[in-house]
């Protein structure tokens, strides 16, 4: 009875041991799985961080740059020059006659005058009396000529009656001719004196603009006096542009130019009308004379700068930001087919608001770094993005 009871009581204890052992293994497997999952997650996270750290480095090695393909544009070749302003045809006006005391000055600098207009007058009281005297002599000579003609007419009427010989007629004819000649002489002397008196008026030789005045009422002037007035014929002005010997060879009469007087922003269109045939052997410069219309801002004797168009050609145009320079000269950065930066030396031409013309070094179909070239180095990898070329 007791034996059976003991066998039945031992069976559940064994079963419970096996169940506990199985539970321990399950917990160990679960913990191992969790640890494995955690390790995998940590490894993934570390890998992701590693990839993220490399990304900026890669980006730094290949920066994004804007590139342009400029092509070729028609570019005006311009020569820059400086020089002085002057009247295109300057006319010095002085005393033509014998001179005397100036009585009136009728014009001021800046006045426009017509040809023959009186600029100043000289005292002429003595000359006026001489004119009256000569006019009287003309009247006397005419009276003598009239009397000689009357005597000749009476003598001719008496020839047929035998009272006057032919010799008397010839003598009276000669007397009449001599009287007429004296009339002509007296008239010529009167005209001469009037002309001399008229030359006391200082007149404008041609229409134009009065530039300077160097005479005042009461001043004594004569043929040896200095210039009293200076005029610009027709008001026409010009710039005497000093051009280097090399640039002078490319300039021709008729080339257009833009003149900017110093001290102002106004610009005036002009044209080359004469190119100096000689070059100064010291400065190695010649003069290109630019005709410009009159304007109050153009003052003879002033200084000005000029941009002379000497021709045109085809060349690539780049923004100023694309052109770099160092001790070796000017250069640009070109992006090749492998997206690497390469230095390209160039020769620049005219710099205008439209950009910089490239005379040598580019064809126009290259990919040029438009800006930020100072931060690049030759051979560096970049990520080019197409920009808008000018």
Automatic annotation (TrEMBL):
Q: Which PANTHER family match?
A: HLYD FAMILY OF SECRETION PROTEINS, MULTIDRUG RESISTANCE PROTEIN MDTA
| The YknX-like C-terminal permuted SH3-like domain, residue ranges | 318-383
- Coiled-coil stretches are 131-158
What is this protein called in UniProt?
A: HlyD-family secretion protein
Q: Name one GO molecular function term.
A: efflux transmembrane transporter activity
Q: Which Gene3D superfamilies match?
A: 2.40.30.170, 2.40.420.20, 2.40.50.100, Helix hairpin bin
Ranges of residues in domain CzcB-like barrel-sandwich hybrid: 99-227
């Amino acid at each position: 009875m007791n034996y059976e009871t003991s066998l039945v009581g031992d069976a559940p204890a064994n079963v419970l041991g096996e169940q506990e052992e199985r539970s321990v293994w399950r917990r160990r497997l679960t913990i191992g799985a969790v640890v494995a999952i955690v390790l995998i997650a940590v490894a993934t996270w570390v890998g992701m961080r590693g990839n993220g750290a490399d990304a900026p480095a890669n980006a730094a090695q290949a920066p994004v740059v804007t590139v342009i393909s400029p092509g070729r544009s028609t570019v005006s070749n311009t020569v820059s020059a400086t020089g002085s302003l002057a009247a295109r045809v300057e006319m010095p006006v002085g005393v033509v006659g014998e001179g005397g005391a100036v009585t009136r000055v009728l014009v001021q600098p800046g006045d426009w005058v017509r040809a023959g207009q009186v600029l100043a007058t000289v005292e002429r009281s003595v000359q006026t009396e001489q004119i009256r005297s000569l006019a009287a002599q003309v009247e006397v000579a005419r009276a003598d000529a009239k009397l000689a003609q009357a005597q000749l007419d009476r003598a001719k009427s008496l020839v047929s009656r035998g009272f006057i010989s032919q010799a008397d007629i010839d003598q009276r004819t000669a007397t009449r001719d001599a009287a007429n000649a004296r009339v002509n002489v007296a008239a010529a002397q009167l005209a001469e004196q009037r002309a001399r008196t008229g030359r006391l008026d200082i007149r404008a030789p041609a229409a134009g603009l009065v530039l300077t005045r160097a005479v005042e009422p009461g001043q004594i002037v004569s043929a040896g006096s200095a210039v009293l007035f200076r005029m610009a014929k027709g008001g026409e002005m010009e710039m005497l542009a000093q051009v280097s010997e090399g640039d002078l060879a490319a300039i021709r009469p008729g080339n257009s130019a833009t003149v900017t007087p110093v001290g102002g922003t106004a610009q005036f269109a002009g044209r080359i009308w004469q190119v100096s045939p000689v070059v100064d052997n010291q400065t190695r410069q010649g003069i290109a004379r630019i005709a410009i219309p009159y304007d109050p801002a153009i003052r003879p004797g002033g200084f000005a700068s000029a941009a002379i168009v000497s021709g045109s050609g085809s060349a690539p145009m780049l923004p100023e930001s694309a052109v770099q320079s160092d001790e070796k000269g000017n250069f640009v950065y070109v992006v090749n087919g492998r997206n690497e930066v390469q230095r390209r030396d160039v020769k620049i031409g005219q710099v205008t608001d439209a950009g910089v013309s490239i005379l040598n070094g580019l064809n126009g179909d290259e990919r040029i770094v438009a800006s930020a070239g100072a931060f690049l180095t030759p051979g560096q990898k970049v990520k080019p993005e197409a920009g808008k070329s000018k």
